[in-house]
Amino acid sequence: MRIKDVENKAFFAQFIARLFVHNVFKDSQIFLPKGDYERRHGDFPRYFSGWYLFVPSDDLAEGEIVHKKLNGLDLVAYRNKEGRPVVHSNRCTHMDGMFAPLGSVKDGRIQCAYHGYTFEDGKPRSGPAEFRNDPSKCIPCHPVTEVNGLIFFWFDAKSEDGVGVPTWELDLPDVSDFPRRATMRSITPTHMAPLHENIIDDQHFMILHGSQRYKSDLLPYQHKHRFRTRNRMIFALPDRMKKFFRLEEDPVTEMDSDFHGLGIHITKANIAGFEAVMIHCTTPIEDEVTEWTLTMYMDRRQWSLIPSYRDFISQIHPWGTFAQVYYLHTQDRRAFFERAPYRFYEDVPKGFEKVNAFRRWIQVELLGEERPMGKNCIPTKYTPLNVLQDDAAE
Ligand code: FES
Ligand SMILES: [Fe+2]
What's the CATH code of the domain at 202? Predict the structure, then answer.
């Protein structure tokens, strides 16, 4: 047996073993890692201002109320007369009744089940005149954007009700070239930050996915709400598979990660020529429980008489990716990643500069305060976009 075969088998064996262990112990607290423990008990903020996914557009039909707890708030969404989504508190301003689950939507107005008062875009539309004309009876609405089949709302971490004016516009890539779409949703007991860290962390491609070689760059905008990295990975395919697909070299996977705050992380992937855009949306539900929705926008499935690796990848997507993402990242990661010493917050050893830079970006740009770093941390050179622009202008 060759070394490579042993490696491949060992990789799958440990994957299966970890899945088994996870499923046996999933309700126990033995996996509560030190990193999580410190975040839970330290002063790392649970919620950050930004655009967050409420639901995919398909999940909010006209005449329907969707009730969700997000960012620690009790929220409802419905579509108004023009079909635009409205997101606001679940509390009625009449006598603090709740819209969901007993309320309804008629002609683009939400109706409270308690005394039947109706509201349109947060404004009272029924009841006595003094109620309708009282500005304090208006329900503050979150700014909402519906784009790429996803409904986003702005959350303001500084205001008490979470409603505020967005400090940036949502600028998502155009996905109209990708006719195929698939969505996966999971709820994971972790803060958004370590969840994204796992995705951009170059080490995880080797440890978790088994890539043999990888290279990663910090791309030059880590500025305000934007942070970007690029990864290039090479996965070693078994020789038989390479022969079947007539590949001379192991295939290359490229992943360009682009953050818009902590709620939206866009990855553009190119796997041996097969292109896809993935929008990872993370919305905290409450405390450190996060809803993670991954939407993939892909090219059509490819067919050809001569088997090609690119076509093969187009066939197995998105399910291959979803299986990997779901099991490896959400089910497995707590046992595997969080227990590793480098997951301790503020302590990043050599070789984890990207994670380091990511944490700096959160501190400087999203939190507005630089925090002390652990003794193993090497300060990463951090390049805000405005500095780059000034350099170019000179
Ligand atoms: S509490 Fe909502 S209508 Fe009275
Ligand atoms: Fe991954």
Answer: 3.30.530.20
d(CA 118, ligand 1 centre) in Å = 9
Q: What is the ipTM of this complex?
A: 0.95
The number of distinct structural domains making up the chain is 2
Residue nearest to atom 3 of ligand 1 (CA): 115
Last-in-domain residue among 341, 363, 379 = 341
DSSP 98-119: B-TTT-EEETTEEE-TTT--EE
Ligand 1 centroid to residue 67 C-alpha, Å: 17
pLDDT, tens digit, 9 for 90 and up, residues 57-68: 999 999 999 999
pLDDT in tens, 310-357: 999 999 888 888 877 777 666 555 544 444 433 444 555 556 667 778
Residue of 90, 94, 98, 132 to test ligand 1 pocket, by largest number of atoms within 8 Å of CB: 94
Q: Compute, in angstroms, the gap from residue 320 CA to the centroid of ligand 2.
A: 12
Q: What is the 3-state secondary structure (H, E, C) of 271-296?
A: ECCEEEEEEEEEEEEECCEEEEEEEE
